[in-house]
């Protein structure tokens, strides 16, 4: 993903975006021996983004006092499978798989963005395109982020289902970019006429890499939905380690190293939230499931 | 400058030839250099294009098989970033049917649109098109997996920098060759001008020699010249010197001839005077002895008078002949008649009669001394050649503005060398040919008077020499003519 000349800033954005929006297509990246805490990450960690990984790992190890392994896999599905089968102590996943595997998982913490544990899904199109809503995009080449992504797939899929439509018949052609930043690139370059993208990633990219988003515009923003959470198996692999992890995440904003990592992610901190935060996503998943 | 190149000066022809040759060399060299440059550029672009296509095709074959639009697009973007030096301007990846999976410029080639599959597109075939000087090169790669065509990569590369390089090389070649041509042409001109300088000196001297008096090449000029021209100048100067010597000799000979003929005349004169002297002495003796007799005295005195008159006539003619006259004196009938007196003694000695038929009845404005000299020479030769008892004729007549003098004898005929000397065929000095000095002098006189000499030898024998001299009318006579 990304370009060879990608700088640390954009690498961070990609990291953040993928971390929080359940997109996959990662390269395996294991930093410490497989002892102690195993923490799963779905995003694409670029080789140049070792600084963020290093900070996160160092913070967790120091605060928890145990070795921490950061586990990445190519797709979100792989991480979800590892998590559900209890091969991971915890993982940063998306709201969609969280509600999909609700019975097997428990909520650890939810990131706070702009003070709230919420984000939106954006429908983006070319800046000069005169479309007014989703219904004007019929026949488009449409870019999705990931089939397991809430903001990059489920939201648009559910919106079509409300009209009794399916993406493969409504759009002329669809493809997955396996990254929200890639959705922005696809729309900006003209490869896709429209795309479904994580609103948090889009806004951060617009802030740090305006040249990428300048040729696109937000056609439609969804209602606020639960931010991609940190989840753990319902039966913890090691209850003590999970408690220590929860504590470390919730106190991240109080530690300088934790604040540095949060700053890089453009997040305010982590909060303990009720599972009902994800009811909106669950409703969309149910609608889609019902529409077949 | 005239159009015919043969008439151009060598100082222009050589630099021009140098320039033309240099231009030819320049064109051939430039062509070779550009051809080589084209080959190098094409090879360079081809290699880069292959490596670009290698990079791209390695990464995307499976994605093409899956028709994974984003993966292919991302690979294209990555390959273009990795191959910046190649300046890939466009890459289009299609499936086996030619439908676009992804292109570097999706707006121009949207996903799913149809792109022409190159002719004979088959696995392993790698068409490459590059035209020297063009701004774009195209390459195509057929993707096979495994052994089956799964897609095609069309790539275009910006080669405008190569076109610029080619133009720069061409400009540099033209400028360099142009400057070299100019320098060599100028050098050629300088060299030829320097080399031709002695030739010009010689040409100037020869021109002067043609128009008048030949002068030798100055020693200083000779010293400045190279060996070859020093030799040439030496030869020329020797020629000029010999010419001057010849002219001096000819002048001397002319004078000596005059003196020579004078000697012969003096001898004849002495003879003329000596002949009556005996009679005169006899008459004087008769007077001394028988002077008292009136009849004898009168008879003796008559003899004396006739004898003295004869001597006086001879002396007078000789004086008139050799008096230093101005050339302005006209020739008269008497001048021609007097020739008989000058030739008669020689004629009598050879028993030849001299007949003079003179139809000139008034003065003719031609120098009498020179004409009489010429005629005397011819008459003396005619008398010498004529057999005893024959007749030598002199005819003088005026035909309009030409004085015609004809000397005829019945001798054995004048030798060919004599004819050449008279008619000017042989212009060498008299001593070299050994011919008669008299003939040569006559020719010289007639030449000076702008006349013409014709020699004919009638079938009955003898020689006829005809002199025609144009009569220049004195200025004071012009009104009468008008």
Automatic annotation (TrEMBL), chain A:
Highest taxon above the source species: Bacteria
Signal peptide: 1-28
Transmembrane segments: none
Record keywords, A-Z: Signal
SUPFAM superfamilies tied to this protein: Periplasmic binding protein-like II
CDD domains according to UniProt: PBP2_PnhD_1
Protein name listed in UniProt: Phosphonate transport system substrate-binding protein
From TrEMBL, chain B:
Enzyme class: transferase
Bilayer-spanning residue ranges: 169-192
Domain HAMP, residue spans: 193-248
GO cellular component, one term: plasma membrane
A Pfam family that the UniProt record links to this protein: HATPase_c
Entry keyword Transmembrane helix: yes
GO molecular function, a single term: phosphorelay sensor kinase activity
Keyword Transmembrane helix: yes
Subcellular location as annotated: Membrane
All residue ranges annotated as the Histidine kinase domain in the record: 268-473
Keywords, sorted A to Z: Kinase, Membrane, Phosphoprotein, Transferase, Transmembrane, Transmembrane helix, Two-component regulatory system
Catalytic activity: ATP + protein L-histidine = ADP + protein N-phospho-L-histidine
UniProt EC number: 2.7.13.3
Main location: membrane
Superkingdom of source: Bacteria
Entries under Gene3D superfamilies matching the protein: 1.10.287.130, Histidine kinase-like ATPase, C-terminal domain
Name of the molecule in the record: histidine kinase
Organism in which the protein naturally occurs: Aquabacter spiritensis
Taxonomic path: Bacteria, Pseudomonadati, Pseudomonadota, Alphaproteobacteria, Hyphomicrobiales
């Amino acid at each position: 993903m990304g370009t060879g000349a990608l700088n640390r800033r954009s690498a961070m954005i990609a990291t953040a975006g993928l971390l929080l929006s359940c997109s996959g297509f990662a390269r395996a990246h294991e930093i410490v021996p497989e002892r102690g805490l195993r923490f799963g990450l779905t995003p694409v960690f670029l080789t140049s983004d070792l600084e963020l990984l290093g900070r996160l790992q160092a913070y967790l190890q120091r605060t928890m006092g145990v070795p921490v392994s950061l586990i990445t896999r190519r797709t979100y599905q792989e991480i979800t499978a590892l998590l559900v089968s209890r091969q991971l102590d915890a993982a940063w996943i998306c709201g969609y798989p969280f509600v999909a595997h609700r019975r097997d998982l428990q909520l650890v913490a939810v990131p706070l963005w702009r003070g709230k544990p919420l984000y939106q899904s954006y429908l983006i199109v070319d800046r000069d395109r005169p479309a007014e809503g989703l219904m004007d995009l019929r026949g488009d080449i449409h870019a999705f982020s990931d089939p397991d992504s809430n903001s990059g797939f489920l939201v648009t899929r559910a919106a079509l289902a409300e009209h009794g439509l399916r993406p493969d018949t409504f759009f002329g052609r669809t493809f997955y970019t396996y990254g929200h930043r890639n959705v922005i690139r696809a729309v900006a370059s003209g490869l896709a006429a429209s795309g479904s993208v994580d609103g948090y990633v889009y806004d951060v990219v617009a802030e740090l890499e305006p040249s990428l988003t300048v040729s696109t515009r937000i056609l439609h923003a969804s209602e606020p939905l639960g931010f991609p959470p940190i989840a753990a198996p319902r039966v913890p692999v090691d209850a003590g380690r999970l408690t220590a992890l929860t504590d470390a995440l919730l106190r991240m904003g109080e530690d300088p190293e934790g604040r540095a990592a949060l700053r890089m992610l453009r997040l305010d901190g982590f909060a303990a939230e009720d599972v009902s935060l994800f009811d909106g996503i669950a409703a969309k998943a149910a609608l889609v499931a019902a529409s077949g | 400058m005239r159009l015919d190149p043969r008439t151009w000066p060598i100082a222009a022809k050589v630099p021009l030839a140098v320039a033309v040759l240099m231009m030819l060399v320049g064109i051939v060299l430039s062509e070779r250099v550009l051809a080589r440059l084209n080959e190098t550029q094409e090879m360079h672009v081809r290699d880069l294009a292959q490596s670009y296509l290698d990079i791209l095709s390695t990464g995307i074959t499976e994605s093409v098989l899956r028709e994974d639009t984003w993966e292919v697009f991302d690979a294209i973007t990555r390959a273009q970033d990795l191959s910046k030096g190649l300046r890939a301007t466009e890459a289009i990846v299609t499936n086996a049917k030619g439908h676009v999976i992804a292109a570097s410029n999706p707006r121009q080639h949207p996903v799913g649109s149809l792109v022409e599959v190159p002719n004979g597109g088959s696995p392993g075939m790698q068409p490459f098109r590059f035209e020297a000087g063009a701004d774009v090169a195209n390459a195509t790669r057929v993707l096979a997996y495994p052994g089956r065509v799964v897609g095609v990569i069309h790539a275009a590369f910006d080669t405008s920098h190569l076109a610029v390089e080619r133009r720069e090389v061409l400009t540099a070649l033209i400028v360099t060759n142009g400057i070299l041509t100019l320098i060599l042409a100028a050098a050629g001109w300088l060299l030829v001008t320097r080399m031709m300088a002695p030739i010009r000196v010689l040409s100037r001297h020869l021109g002067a020699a043609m128009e008048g008096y030949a002068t030798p090449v100055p020693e200083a000029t000779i010293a400045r010249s190279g060996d070859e021209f020093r030799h040439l100048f030496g030869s020329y100067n020797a020629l000029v010197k010999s010419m001057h010597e010849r002219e001096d000799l000819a002048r001397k000979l002319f004078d000596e001839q005059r003196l020579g003929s004078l000697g012969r005349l003096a001898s004849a004169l002495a003879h003329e005077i000596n002949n009556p002297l005996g009679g005169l002495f006899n008459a004087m003796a008769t007077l001394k002895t028988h002077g008292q007799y009136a009849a004898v005295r009168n008879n003796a005195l008559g003899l004396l008078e006739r004898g003295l008159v004869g001597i006086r006539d001879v002396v007078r003619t000789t004086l008139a002949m050799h008096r230093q006259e101005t050339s302005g004196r006209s020739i008269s009938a008497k001048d021609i008649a007097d020739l008989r007196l000058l030739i008669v003694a020689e004629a009598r000695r050879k028993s030849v009669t001299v007949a003079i038929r003179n139809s000139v009845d008034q003065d003719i404005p031609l120098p009498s001394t020179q004409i009489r000299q010429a005629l005397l020479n011819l008459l003396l030769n005619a008398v010498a050649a004529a057999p005893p008892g024959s007749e030598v004729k002199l005819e003088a007549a005026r035909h309009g503005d030409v004085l015609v003098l004809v000397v005829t004898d019945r001798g054995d005929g004048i030798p060919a060398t004599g004819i050449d000397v008279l008619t000017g065929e042989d212009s060498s000095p008299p001593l070299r040919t050994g011919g008669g000095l008299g003939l040569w002098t006559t020719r010289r006189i007639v030449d000076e008077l702008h006349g013409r000499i014709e020699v004919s030898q009638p079938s009955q024998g003898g020689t006829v020499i005809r002199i025609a001299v144009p009569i220049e009318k004195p200025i004071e006579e012009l009104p009468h003519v008008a």
